[in-house]
Structure formats: structure tokens, C-alpha cells
Write a structure and sequence with these properties.
Layout lengths: L6 E5 L7 E3 L3 E5 L4 E5 L15 E2 L1 E4 L4 E4 L12 E7 L4 E4 L7 H7 L5 E13 H9 L11 H6 L6 E5 L2 E7 L2 E6 L3 E6 L2 E9 L6 E11 L5 H8 L1 H12 L18 H13 L4
Antiparallel strand pairs: 1-9, 2-3, 2-5, 3-4, 4-8, 6-7, 8-9, 10-16, 11-12, 12-13, 13-14, 14-15, 15-16
Helix pairs in contact: 2-5
Length: about 280
């Protein structure tokens, strides 16, 4: 569907001690980059390990084929290496994305003690393009709308909005921001707290049907109550999923903003139009 599809796979702390499993890849820490191993066994395409877990030995339970932590076959001749990803200054594991010189990168680069905590996952038959526009849309955050709780804890007048090539940033209050990297990844940050959420289309050239995973990372010093509050952002994401499942028809770009809260929707729509592969 798109000619440029940057992906943010995880935070580097996820592979501190073992390999980390994502929906597409098993991540392995290399010298200056991250090795990507296919999560689907190359023998008969059976999925290996559950996303959001770590492993120091890679095993396909269908035929008991095994690889060591570095992807070397132990009892078969199948290769699972399928490329590499970069480690950004932010600590994010990046594929086909160049980090800008921006404060959000500085904020994440200063978080030296983050540890992987857990992941949540889900599925939807809705349009992931409508969903990702919803992540860019703050006009729909109001007391009588779908985000009643969120509207009670943020002040739209205080939101600072910024954008760059292939991303938007919304700062809600000091040290709490939301970052959307087109077209799949939505990141939330507060001091000592990080979530990396991304969707995986069921069919790359069809906007309808997707899986999602949200990874949570915390500094060990972050209080439990603060973690629990941060994780309510997953409830907000699910509210967006429920909303876009009610929207009619395929996504179409917003060409003109009614007010500043839709500026990021227009920015996203322009990216979609400029990166769409013409049939």
C-alpha cells in the first residue's frame, strides 16, 4: 500500500538479556544494530514464540527445529536471519526511519534505566488508516464524546502540537507527550514510563483488519500507582478502536482543518497521499 513504511519495533531495553519477540520478528542484539530473525519458521511458516516474550533459544514447536540465541541452527539447516534494524539515539529500535533532531529524542535518550514490563495485544476488523488518523485527531476529545475520562484530565487549550517528516508530536502537559510515527506506530511518554504501540495489517495492501501490540517500559523507580495510571492509556486506544469500527467505508484524507486540532490529521493525510503506491 505504501512505498515508505517505517517501523518502530521496540525499545532497546527489551533485548538487554535475551531476544525479544514481536509480531513479525525475533529481535537479537548485535554489535551496533539489532539482528532480525523471522518469527515464522522458514520450514513450514509456523509461528515461533509469543509476541511480548523473551527467549534465549528459538524453537519451532511444529517440528522441534531449534536455533541458539544468535540464530544459528542447532538441529536443522534453515536460516532465520531476515535483516537488521538500527538503534536510535532515543533507544528505540528503528527500521527505515531516521530520527530527527528534536526534544522527543532527547527525552527518550535521557531514560537510561527503562526495563521491559509487559505487552497487551488485540485484533480488529476495522480500518487501521482510520485508527491512525484517530491517533492524530484531538478534535474528538470532548466530555460528551468517546474519551470521557481523557477529556477530564487534559486541557485542549494547553496542548502543544509539533510535526516533522513522517511524524507528529502532541505535548499534553510538561513531560507527557504522544508521538505518532507514520503509518503504524503510536508512542506515549512520561518520565520513567514509555509505551510503544503499533499495528500490523492482516493484509499489507488492505486497510481493513489489523492486529496491535502495546509494549510497556518503566524505570524501576517509577511507583506502581504511576504505572497503573499510565497503562490506562491502553483503554483510550481501545476506545479509538471501537470508534473506527463504526466508521463507514475506507479512509480518505482530510484536506482542510476546521481548527488547529485537525492540523495533524491533514499532515497525516498528505503523507498517505504522497506515499501511496499507485496501481
Amino acid at each position: 500500500m505504501f512505498k515508505n513504511t517505517p517501523k518502530i519495533l521496540a525499545h532497546i531495553s527489551s533485548i538487554k538479556n535475551n531476544n525479544f519477540v514481536t509480531p513479525e520478528y525475533i529481535l537479537n542484539k548485535g554489535t551496533n544494530s539489532v539482528n532480525l530473525f523471522n518469527r515464522y519458521c522458514p520450514h513450514r511458516m509456523y509461528p515461533m514464540h509469543v509476541p511480548g516474550t523473551t527467549t534465549n533459544e528459538i524453537v519451532c514447536n511444529l517440528h522441534n527445529f531449534k536455533w541458539d540465541i544468535n540464530g544459528t541452527p542447532l538441529n536443522n539447516s534453515k536460516k532465520i536471519n531476515c535483516g537488521n534494524a538500527d538503534i536510535g539515539r532515543s533507544g528505540l529500535i528503528l527500521k527505515d526511519f531516521v530520527e530527527p533532531n528534536h526534544q522527543w529524542v532527547n527525552d527518550l535518550s535521557a531514560e537510561n534505566n527503562l526495563e521491559y514490563h509487559c505487552s497487551t495485544m488485540g485484533k480488529s476488523n476495522g480500518s487501521w488508516l482510520w485508527l491512525m488518523e484517530a491517533e492524530a485527531d484531538y478534535l474528538h476529545v470532548h466530555a460528551s464524546g468517546i474519551h470521557k475520562r481523557l477529556s477530564s484530565i487534559i486541557d485542549l487549550e494547553e496542548i502543544t502540537m509539533d510535526q516533522g517528516e513522517g511524524w507528529i508530536l502532541q505535548t499534553h502537559k510538561p513531560n507527557w507527550w504522544s508521538l505518532y510515527i507514520f503509518p503504524y506506530t503510536f508512542i506515549e511518554y512520561a518520565p520513567g514510563c514509555l509505551s510503544v504501540n503499533y499495528v500490523t495489517p492482516v493484509t499489507p495492501n488492505n486497510e481493513f483488519g489489523f492486529d496491535w501490540i502495546t509494549q510497556f517500559y518503566y524505570d524501576p523507580k517509577t511507583p506502581v500507582e504511576q504505572r497503573l495510571e499510565f497503562e490506562t492509556l491502553e483503554d483510550v486506544f481501545k476506545e479509538d478502536v471501537q470508534a473506527i469500527e463504526k466508521q463507514k467505508g475506507p479512509y480518505f484524507p482530510l484536506m482542510k482543518a476546521m481548527n488547529r486540532y485537525e492540523d495533524h490529521c491533514v499532515h497525516f493525510g498528505k503523507w498517505v497521499k504522497s506515499n501511496l503506491i499507485k496501481n
